[in-house]
Amino acid sequence: MVQGSLKKKSTTGPKRPATLGPKRGPRQIAPKKATLIKQKKLTKKLTSGLTTMTERNLAEKAGHLELLAGGKKDRKKSAEGAKGKGQK
């Protein structure tokens, strides 16, 4: 049997509601030196090229996916377009 009554927790002021939007990512300060600016542009260009190449490779390997460009459907469309131009 319970000997005494339960202790109630005291509330500590009003609580802020949790933010519903996406969390903010880490901030980055832009470089000011010319050499660093050139390096950043070059790395951005190279990384974007690598990501497009990997996406293209994934699309070729899994050609049934419609979300990725460069799959089997894109190859069929380009082949039909080439046939149509040659017959005219």
UniProtKB/TrEMBL annotation:
Pfam family, one: DUF2462
Region of interest (Disordered), ranges: 1-33, 47-88
InterPro entries cross-referenced by the UniProt entry: UPF0390
PANTHER family noted in UniProt: LEYDIG CELL TUMOR 10 KDA PROTEIN HOMOLOG
Biased composition (Basic and acidic residues): 77-88
Chain segments annotated as transmembrane: none
The species this protein was found in: Aspergillus ellipticus CBS 707.79
Biased amino acid composition, Basic residues: 1-10
Top-level taxon: Eukaryota
Name under which the protein is recorded: Uncharacterized protein
Entry similarity comment: Belongs to the UPF0390 family.
